[in-house]
Design brief:
This protein is an alpha+beta fold. The chain has 14 helices and 17 strands. The longest helix is centred in the first third of the chain and has 26 residues. The model has no long low-confidence stretch (mean pLDDT 95).
């Protein structure tokens, strides 16, 4: 969680641009037309997002899942973000927070910052094990997984969107009054891989062919085999998460250290993917004017992608590298949540954490994403299960001595239902 040393992209990245340009017919003409259309659309949508703010993010009740209108479902798909209320009973969620507080007081835990720990490198507390395996939590992630589909209509073997899997991640208990700069606007689930990996690149084929309006962020066909971690960077998720998410174990809301999102995954994807192929004209005065930009594939820069020695980080869009997103105005805080509510955002959504927390209480959340059953995901969960049984960090995270001897560590017995056992990769006889 320390501040990263971010360097430039390597010169070889120019070959990625040339390869892409050679792959799609009339590439320059088509993406230039798409770029100009996209900037016009962004001008309208960013103004709408900025004017509505937090209200732009959809909110639904857990009890409504499966009953939402087509219009409401399409709104959630378009915005790629949703607050789901009352997934877990308030009292149960509050009890998980109490257990966490006791856990970090009792045990020699790893966390950040070192002198006032608030973000914890912990994975197997009883609270986390219980929350991830909770029937309502898994029903919620199954609902979100099923927002995806195979647009071509083909059948993909051994993929089950209705069988949720568990991905063990960390938690935070952020204190009020503490500045938090560690999570600026970014996109997880792959950096340069979005352009470099041929399979991942196919997820954005409509954008790269100029048909950006036909882009479908929910098409499974290439997602499940995309390489999101080509460089083995520790902490880079190697599984496919349909949505990232967290479960609140305290109340939190705008200006209280909560999540912020750019709530239009279609537009942010199109802009992010096309941005490396355009540069600002020298001497241009109006950065927002499409006429100020020109097609160029001679540069090896991929704006928002940075080298980190052994790999690459990003995308990290900001107002300078991605001005048309107007992130100073459009990174909106999600609505107020209570204990037991969950927040989810599509794996491509630009998101951040508020720098300031001016509330009166800790902002406490457990990170719990939506993960479908795929062969690649199931293989990871099998390795993760062994990490759980040993009490050590999961495969995607930095090695450590682990929590096996900690007081209050979660055990298999804390998984109270067969769906939760299956999600953690344990064999069951009846579900």
């Amino acid at each position: 969680m320390s501040r990263l040393e971010l360097g430039p992209c390597p010169p070889r990245f120019v070959e990625i641009k040339k390869e892409i340009a050679a792959t799609y017919p009339d590439f320059q003409e088509r993406v230039t037309k798409a770029w100009n259309e996209l900037l016009t659309e962004l001008e309208t949508v960013t103004a709408d997002i900025a004017s509505q703010g937090t209200q732009y993010v959809p909110e639904v009740q857990f009890s409504e899942l499966g009953k939402l209108s087509k219009e409401r479902m399409e709104e959630i798909r378009q915005k790629g973000s949703v607050v789901i209320k009352n997934v877990v009973d308030d009292a149960e969620a509050v009890s998980w927070r109490r257990w966490l507080q006791e856990y970090v007081k009792t045990n020699p835990v790893n966390g950040w910052p070192a002198d006032d720990k608030q973000f914890f490198e912990l994975y197997w507390t009883k609270s986390q094990v219980s929350a991830r395996s909770h029937a309502n939590v898994l029903a919620t992630t199954s609902f979100l997984n099923n927002m995806y589909h195979v647009r071509s209509g083909d059948t993909i073997e051994n993929v089950d969107l209705s069988t949720p899997l568990t991905y063990a991640d960390r938690f935070r208990m952020r204190h009020p009054g503490v500045q938090w700069d560690a999570h600026p606007p970014h996109v997880d689930g792959g950096g340069i891989e979005r352009w470099e990996d041929p399979t991942f690149r196919k997820c954005f084929a409509d954008i790269l062919s100029g048909n950006w309006r036909q882009h479908d962020p929910y098409d499974l066909e290439n997602r499940i085999n995309a390489r999101s971690s080509m460089y083995g960077r520790v902490g880079q998720a190697t599984i496919f998460r349909t949505f990232q998410g967290w479960l609140a174990v305290s109340g939190t809301g705008p200006d209280q250290g909560t999540l912020q999102v750019f709530p239009d995954v279609h537009l942010s994807n199109a802009y992010t993917i096309l941005r490396p192929f355009f540069v600002l004209k020298e001497g241009a005065e109006d950065v927002y004017d499409a006429k100020s930009w020109v097609y160029d594939i001679t540069s090896y820069d991929f704006p928002g992608i940075y080298s980190t020695g052994t790999g690459f980080r990003g995308p990290f869009p900001n107002p300078k590298t991605h001005p048309h997103l107007k992130l100073d105005e459009t990174m909106v805080s999600v609505p107020k949540v209570d204990p037991g509510d969950m927040v989810f955002w599509h794996c491509d959504v630009v998101h951040s954490v508020e720098k300031k927390h001016v509330g009166n209480d800790d902002s406490a959340v457990l990170y719990i994403p939506a993960v479908p059953f795929t062969p690649q995901n199931a293989a990871y969960v099998a390795r993760q299960r062994e990490s759980f049984l040993k009490g050590v960090p999961p495969p995607d995270f930095p090695p450590a001595n682990g929590e096996a001897e900690y007081a209050g560590v979660g055990r298999v017995d804390d998984i109270k239902n067969p769906v939760g056992l299956r999600a953690m990769g344990f064999p069951i006889e009846v579900v």
